[in-house]
Design a protein that fits this description.
GO terms for molecular function: porin activity. The protein has one domain: Porin (Beta Barrel), CATH 2.40.160. Helices cover about 5% and strands about 50% of the residues. The chain is built from two helices and 23 strands. The chain has a 16-stranded antiparallel barrel with strand order 2-5-6-9-10-11-12-15-16-17-18-19-20-21-22-23. Strands 3-4 form a two-stranded antiparallel sheet. It has a two-stranded antiparallel ribbon with strand order 7-8.
């Protein structure tokens, strides 16, 4: 066989194989179009369109770890019982929280339709004082699953908002500074169902009217000497007891220098009034200051859902100084008519974007320490108490 015959034979074989394969060709399916998530930038960063709808959704929240020590504030003052000798002793306050938040927004012919929800899950010790109970066993301070709370769940169309919120007596005028323990002298009740209307007049002027339910119980019904049930009030934190709601109204004027705000509230259960005014000033690009004052009546009860400070008047003041983009110093001082004083100061440091460490020191003076009727909000069991808190928080 010569070279020419070999080449011709090989070419013929290749053609035959190719023809056989062509007759049995594989059909490749066309790729199906993928529906990718579409970014929605109408309401800010983090929103995306829910596939198949015109609704924009944002999901966020934070994971937080608190370590507290000392005798003052809502997050310290923990005690336990020694398992060997039964002595009551101080212990750490620990709490881990996971908070899930959702926001939605959609444009309609009646305005923007929005919702907001916030749910909190907590694990830690209960931050209570230890004691021996009636069965001669000790009630210590074990760690475990604590509260699961629905802190916010509201719907808003245009300026109308309904659902679970915090009282406009606090949200509209602002919280008492950027410290963690801002209620050493309390400034109003929080959790409530609401029917609210927000009005923005432009040029920095806005207003709110809020019908509220309140929350909590004010005491218990007991029999008097005549056999009639009367209310024994042990706390002013209460829910409405008729069809008449609590009412809050406020006005705000905001400009580049800061703002000035006033709110007033009527507690329908106790027929008491309370009000607060506030001034915020952006002194420099690094320094912001605030001053807030409150006054309330106490004709029928010492403290109601809105006036939760002692006596008629209270004042809060402080500010924030930003050393740089990562580090800030926050301070708040407060006092009320019952000679309760509180000072809270912290340094917050952003280790990386989204992760903040805050170290805070708190001081509380109980103006009515030892009184049977004392209802100071702190857990301190001394006239003068000092405590501290270290917080790690990853926000997303």
């Amino acid at each position: 066989m010569n070279i020419k015959s070999l080449l011709l034979g090989s070419a013929a074989a290749l053609i035959a194989v190719s023809g056989a394969r062509a007759a049995d060709a594989v059909v490749v399916a066309e790729p199906e179009p993928a529906e990718y998530v579409k970014i929605c930038d109408v309401y800010g960063s983090g929103y995306f369109y829910i596939p198949g709808t015109e609704t924009c959704l944002r999901i966020g929240g934070y994971v937080r770890y608190d370590i507290g020590m000392g005798d003052v504030g809502a997050f310290t003052g923990a005690e336990s019982v020694d398992h060997e000798d039964g002595d009551v002793q101080d212990t750490w306050y620990k709490n881990t929280r996971f908070t899930l938040k959702t926001w939605t927004g959609q444009e309609t012919e009646l305005g923007t339709l929005k919702t907001y929800t916030e749910t909190r899950f907590n694990f830690g010790n209960n931050n209570r004082h230890a004691f021996f109970n009636s069965t001669d066993s000790f009630d210590s301070n074990p760690a475990g699953m604590k509260s699961v709370s629905l802190n916010f769940a509201w719907i808003q169309l245009g300026g109308l908002r309904v659902g679970k919120d915090e009282s406009a007596f606090n949200t509209f005028i602002g919280y008492a500074g950027n410290v963690i323990q801002d209620t050493l002298v309390p400034y109003g009740g929080f959790d409530t169902n609401v029917v609210q209307y927000y009005f923005d007049a432009g040029n920095g002027l806005s207003a709110v009217v809020s019908l509220e339910e309140g929350s909590g119980d004010a005491g218990a019904a007991v029999l008097d000497g005549a056999g009639n049930y009367v209310f024994n009030a042990t706390s002013g934190n209460d829910t409405i007891d008729s069809y008449v709601p609590h009412v809050v109204g406020g006005v705000k004027y905001t400009q580049g220098w800061g703002d000035i705000i006033a709110v007033g509230a009527y507690d329908s259960t106790w027929e008491e009034w309370a009000g607060k005014v506030r001034l915020d000033v952006n002194a420099t690009s690094e320094l912001s200051l605030f001053l807030m004052a409150g006054y309330g009546t106490d004709d029928n009860i010492d403290r109601n859902f809105y006036k939760q400070w002692g006596g008629n008047w209270a004042v809060w003041g402080g500010g924030t100084y930003k050393f740089n983009e990562k580090t800030s110093f926050n301070l708040q001082a407060s006092s009320d008519d019952d000679k309760n004083y509180g000072v809270a100061a912290n340094v917050a440091y952003d280790i990386v974007p989204g992760l903040t460490v805050t170290a805070e020191v708190d001081y509380d003076h109980d103006g009515k320490f030892g009184d049977v009727d004392n209802r100071n909000w702190t857990n301190g069991d001394k006239k003068n108490s000092v405590g501290g808190l270290l917080r790690f928080q990853r926000s997303f």
